[in-house]
Amino acid sequence: MTNNKMPPMLPHIEALGTYEGVDPMEVMAERSGIPSEKIIRLNGNENPYGPSPKVAAALGDYPNFNYYPDPGQRNLRQVLSGYLNVDPERIVAGNGSDELIDLLLRMYVGVGDNVIIPTPTFGMYTFSTGICGGETISVERDNWFEINLEAMKSAVTTKSKIIFLTSPNNPTGNIVPEAQTRALLDTGLLVVMDEAYFEFCGETAIPLLSEYPNLVVLRTFSKWAGLAGLRIGVAAMDPDLAATMMAMKPPYNVNLAAEVALTTSLKDTPSLLERVAQIVEERSRMMEKLKQVPSLTPWPSRANFILCEVPDGRGKEIFEGLCSRGIFLRYWSKGRLKNFIRTSIGLPHETDAVVEAFRELCS
């Protein structure tokens, strides 16, 4: 007789909600009834120009994909040392920044512990904390989406382990001032500064690493280098913390294709930064055009996206109207952002289509 019983799942895993990622183009096309080649996909903060053209050639020429990557990340860490301007022993690379967030949480957070975030912010912190059985303490930002520093410090408990900050913040686009970063580092908690959009603003907490062993800085090659599909993220931190993470991470966590793409991208940094400059220029153009749309309020941004406030109570209606036109942006159906829609910065013709659709739908 077959025993169909299984051991009980961990309660906090069983209760976990699904993180809402970005649908593939084919799903968007099916939903809107518009051919995939005509879809405008600006909901993932992806790079509209794609990776360096040298990446495809390097991947095609690489002869050793039959071998495992280096578990010690020796070449990666050396190459990234020049990019981050920190010593190699401070660096750990991951399968996207998401993996590095997960590793940090597993190092510090157990059932009953908590992390602190200024909300609204990137949803992965809360999701990954839940996987560890931890609790997320969300501290509301002020009316201008700036961090409420005193409320953040007051939220710290004996069970608090990590403070997550994003600069520029996703989805609001504003940066964390250095004085606030220092004040939160002075709490003694681990402070993780997620700089996924650094190249679009040029401001970093990297210089503070030499002063604060409790600081971790995250970067990604998904946005500025156009490598979102290859999943490569980087963390800079205290050397002892990095050594521990290197010892406990999966040995082959960064695949060889991602490593080849990263090293090739860094060799082509000037060309990629020219594209970043184009995106920043298009951000300014899009902001000016969005300001001219009646009943729409675009919020200032230092990233590769703009958060737009739509008329009260009409967020879902306008979002669905955009989708029906084959324009897919990011919408939050509840909470403080229910009247907000975020658009990534795309190509100029995509900007024009988004602005025109907002003009029609917000009237």
Automatic annotation (TrEMBL):
<dbReference type="GO" id="GO:0030170">
    <property type="term" value="F:pyridoxal phosphate binding"/>
</dbReference>
<dbReference type="Pfam" id="PF00155">
    <property type="entry name" value="Aminotran_1_2"/>
</dbReference>
<comment type="pathway">
    <text>Amino-acid biosynthesis.</text>
</comment>
<dbReference type="InterPro" id="IPR015421">
    <property type="entry name" value="PyrdxlP-dep_Trfase_major"/>
</dbReference>
<dbReference type="InterPro" id="IPR015422">
    <property type="entry name" value="PyrdxlP-dep_Trfase_small"/>
</dbReference>
<keyword id="KW-0663">Pyridoxal phosphate</keyword>
<dbReference type="InterPro" id="IPR005861">
    <property type="entry name" value="HisP_aminotrans"/>
</dbReference>
<keyword id="KW-0032">Aminotransferase</keyword>
<protein>
    <recommendedName>
        <fullName>Aminotransferase class I/classII large domain-containing protein</fullName>
    </recommendedName>
</protein>
<dbReference type="InterPro" id="IPR004839">
    <property type="entry name" value="Aminotransferase_I/II_large"/>
</dbReference>
<keyword id="KW-0028">Amino-acid biosynthesis</keyword>
<dbReference type="InterPro" id="IPR015424">
    <property type="entry name" value="PyrdxlP-dep_Trfase"/>
</dbReference>
<keyword id="KW-0368">Histidine biosynthesis</keyword>
<dbReference type="GO" id="GO:0004400">
    <property type="term" value="F:histidinol-phosphate transaminase activity"/>
</dbReference>
<keyword id="KW-0808">Transferase</keyword>
<dbReference type="GO" id="GO:0000105">
    <property type="term" value="P:L-histidine biosynthetic process"/>
</dbReference>
<feature type="domain" description="Aminotransferase class I/classII large">
    <location>
        <begin position="38"/>
        <end position="353"/>
    </location>
</feature>
